[in-house]
Automatic annotation (TrEMBL):
<keyword id="KW-1133">Transmembrane helix</keyword>
<dbReference type="GO" id="GO:0005886">
    <property type="term" value="C:plasma membrane"/>
</dbReference>
<feature type="transmembrane region" description="Helical">
    <location>
        <begin position="61"/>
        <end position="81"/>
    </location>
</feature>
<dbReference type="InterPro" id="IPR051258">
    <property type="entry name" value="Diverse_Substrate_Transporter"/>
</dbReference>
<dbReference type="InterPro" id="IPR000620">
    <property type="entry name" value="EamA_dom"/>
</dbReference>
<dbReference type="Pfam" id="PF00892">
    <property type="entry name" value="EamA"/>
</dbReference>
<feature type="transmembrane region" description="Helical">
    <location>
        <begin position="87"/>
        <end position="105"/>
    </location>
</feature>
<keyword id="KW-0472">Membrane</keyword>
<protein>
    <submittedName>
        <fullName>Membrane protein</fullName>
    </submittedName>
</protein>
<feature type="transmembrane region" description="Helical">
    <location>
        <begin position="231"/>
        <end position="250"/>
    </location>
</feature>
<keyword id="KW-1003">Cell membrane</keyword>
<feature type="transmembrane region" description="Helical">
    <location>
        <begin position="141"/>
        <end position="160"/>
    </location>
</feature>
<feature type="transmembrane region" description="Helical">
    <location>
        <begin position="34"/>
        <end position="52"/>
    </location>
</feature>
<feature type="transmembrane region" description="Helical">
    <location>
        <begin position="112"/>
        <end position="129"/>
    </location>
</feature>
<feature type="domain" description="EamA">
    <location>
        <begin position="6"/>
        <end position="129"/>
    </location>
</feature>
<keyword id="KW-0812">Transmembrane</keyword>
<feature type="transmembrane region" description="Helical">
    <location>
        <begin position="256"/>
        <end position="273"/>
    </location>
</feature>
Length: 276
């Protein structure tokens, strides 16, 4: 029952993260994405201080923040040099990267069923993203660094929260604050801030729901399923992102994308049929 509760909680995380894509697309047109991420994570830092009164674990939290900061910085920078479809696909490669870093850091091998599921997830992500066959460029390389950083962050969350006496919420403020600083440093590269009402509404939603609440759920429940199973649960994020884009932005879903979504759902279920 504990594992089922953790799976459902992490599925909520994928819903929250998936919803950020259409919300931010509507709000960020013509705006500076680095400034947006700075305000998002700075606001999340203040929310964290207000909601959680425990002492921050600076060492572990800053290490997590380092990888989140690198992830967001390289993703946003890479997007300026490559297409959004290629960026989405390469970013999603953090999912099959997780078992590699889980083995290197935690010494945990994925099960055979999970290996099959990770392979299926790559196929599903490719069909869902439908990236172009353009030559691999500097933007793609930056985005690949983003995928590696996100994969390491997922594995380290499991490792740190499994330590005896670790209060999960103590990891939140340091990683949010460092991520905010990362984006502040890069903000001159992103153009004008572009404040508007939709910008502010998206900022509050992503800071409170998709950052504070979602990351708190991640650090609280991910250890109950393990890094490999969690990564396969997170394959639902691009599925929800596509569904919300269809509902909110009237974006068309092609047949191949629908097949990719189905494959991702199957891979997520397969990978969680037994403990990894």
């Amino acid at each position: 029952m504990k594992r089922v509760r953790a799976i459902l909680a992490l599925l909520f995380v994928t819903v929250a993260w998936g919803l950020t894509f259409p919300v931010q697309k509507m709000a960020l047109t013509g705006s500076n994405p680095f400034f947006y991420n700075f305000f998002r994570f700075l606001l999340a830092s203040f929310f964290t201080l207000f909601l959680f009164r425990n002492k921050p674990r600076w060492r572990e939290g800053l290490i997590l923040g380092l990888f989140i900061g690198i992830g967001y910085a390289t993703q946003t920078s890479g997007l300026k040099l490559t297409s959004s479809t290629k960026s989405g696909f390469i970013t999603s490669l953090y999912i099959p990267f997780v078992p590699i870093f889980s083995f290197l850091i935690e010494r945990i091998k994925p099960t055979r069923l999970q290996l099959v599921s990770f392979f299926l997830s790559i196929v599903g992500l490719y069909l869902l993203s439908s990236p172009s066959s353009d030559v691999f460029n500097a933007g793609d390389l930056l985005t690949l660094f983003c995928a590696v950083a996100f994969a390491i962050q997922i594995v380290l969350v499991t490792r740190y929260t499994s330590q005896e006496g670790c209060e999960e919420s103590s990891l939140l403020f340091p990683q949010f604050f460092l991520t905010a600083l990362f984006n502040l440093v890069l903000s001159p590269l992103g153009g004008p801030i572009g404040f508007k009402l939709s910008y502010l509404l998206a900022l509050v939603f992503t800071a409170l729901v998709a950052t504070v609440l979602a990351f708190w759920v991640q650090v609280k429940f991910q250890r109950d399923v393990g890094s490999n199973s969690a990564a396969l649960i997170y394959t639902a994020e691009p599925v929800f992102a596509s569904l919300f884009a269809f509902l909110m932005l009237a974006e068309r879903v092609t047949t191949s994308q629908a097949i990719g979504m189905c494959i991702l759902v199957v891979s997520s279920i397969m990978g969680n049929l037994r403990r990894g």
